[in-house]
Design goal:
binds manganese (II) ion, four-stranded antiparallel β-sheet, alpha/beta, 15 strands, binds phosphoenolpyruvate, 2 domains, TIM Barrel, eight-stranded parallel β-barrel
Length: 339
């Protein structure tokens, strides 16, 4: 941590700041310039609240130089983490994985039809929610365990892996039985007791970014799962809340290269929730792959006009085919291939 002292601070206030830093357990290195003094506070304290020092008389600025997350950080692990999910590799610079399927599982015939079509076009994972986080309690809430069974059956039939959302602790054991990846929804990103419980799971977890979360908050949430002992964590950028109202969310493509430099964890992009408008999903998927996403998760429906949730952002199967053709070319242009 670096403490910049105000230009006209008295010697006694500088001494008080140094004493406060020592009392907090830091070693202090003082650099005295002509007009300004800078204090280097050395000591690893990831949970230190810098406001304790910012409030002291004579302090101009306090800068943290080490990051509060450890296990999720690039400094802890230099190489990319590569997760192996049923033989499909996620992460690293070689492949881009594609997850596709409906927003919600609605019936056996629906999930079978969509699974067949996305598998034929090169998806490796079947997505779909059986437990749905809906803004309205009157909206379709998902089929629950029967929906999970249908999804598993459809995925097995067409050689896919399953990714589906788990909404709370009471559902973990059930979702683990059917799913290859546990999806944590955006609204749950900071449900810390839930994240701790997922730290004990043997299944990989995909942690979506909260709609109003900073990179640091997102990586601290990943840290909860990692520090619980589950090292199979990937992140998912799914759009954030901004002042813009023309799109459902604002897809933060910049998250992809920034997270890659801060963390070794794979990052998946969700252009469907990221923009929320069907005819703009393909351009956002292209942008995400171009920016280095390790995978994309896309909503696809054979009859989106009658979908029980998110029909307006779900691609028709022919559009998904087009998306796959385009992202293959983009992946190749940056030295990767679509798994
Ligand atoms: C979903 O993937 O269908 C979903 C509900 O996503 P999010 O948590 O990003 O809103
Ligand atoms: Mn959805």
């Amino acid at each position: 941590m670096v403490v910049v002292v105000q230009e006209k601070a008295s010697e006694s206030s500088i001494e008080q700041i140094i004493k406060a830093l020592h009392d907090c357990g830091f070693d202090v290195h003082r650099s005295t310039g002509v007009n300004q003094t800078v204090l280097g506070a050395i000591g690893v304290q990831p949970d230190f609240d810098t406001r304790q020092i910012e409030l002291l008389p004579g302090v101009a600025q306090v800068y943290r130089i080490s990051e509060p997350f450890k296990l999720a950080s690039r400094s802890f692990r230099r190489e990319d983490s590569i997760l192996d999910v049923g033989g499909v590799k996620i992460g690293g610079s070689a492949v881009v994985v594609v997850m596709a399927g409906p927003c919600s599982v609605e019936s056996e015939s629906q999930i079978m039809t969509i699974a067949k079509s996305v598998a034929e076009n090169g998806a490796k994972f079947l997505r779909g929610g059986a437990f749905k986080p809906r803004t309205s309690p009157y909206a379709f809430q998902g089929m629950g365990e029967p929906g999970l069974k249908m999804m598993r059956k459809a995925a097995d039939e067409f050689g896919l892996q399953v990714i589906t959302e788990v909404m709370d602790m009471s559902q973990i054991a059930t979702v683990e039985k059917y799913s290859d990846i546990l999806q944590v929804g955006a609204r749950n990103m900071q449900n810390f007791t839930f994240l701790k419980e997922l730290g004990k799971s043997s299944k990989p977890v995909m942690l979506k970014r909260g709609p109003a979360s900073t990179f640091e908050e997102w990586l601290m949430s990943a840290e909860y799962i990692l520090s619980g002992g589950n090292h199979n964590v990937m992140l998912c950028e799914r759009g954030i809340r901004t002042f813009e109202t023309a799109t459902r969310n604002t897809m933060d493509i910049g998250a992809i290269p920034v997270i890659h430099s801060k963390s070794h964890l794979p990052i998946i992009a969700d252009p469907s929730h990221g923009i929320g408008i069907r005819n703009k999903v393909i351009p956002m998927a292209r942008a995400a792959v171009a920016a280095g996403a390790d995978g994309i998760i896309v909503e696809v429906h054979h009859d989106p006009d009658h979908a029980k949730s998110d029909g307006a952002q779900s691609l028709y199967p022919e559009q998904f085919k087009e998306l796959m053709q385009q992202v293959r070319i983009i992946a190749e242009a940056i030295g990767r291939s679509v798994a």
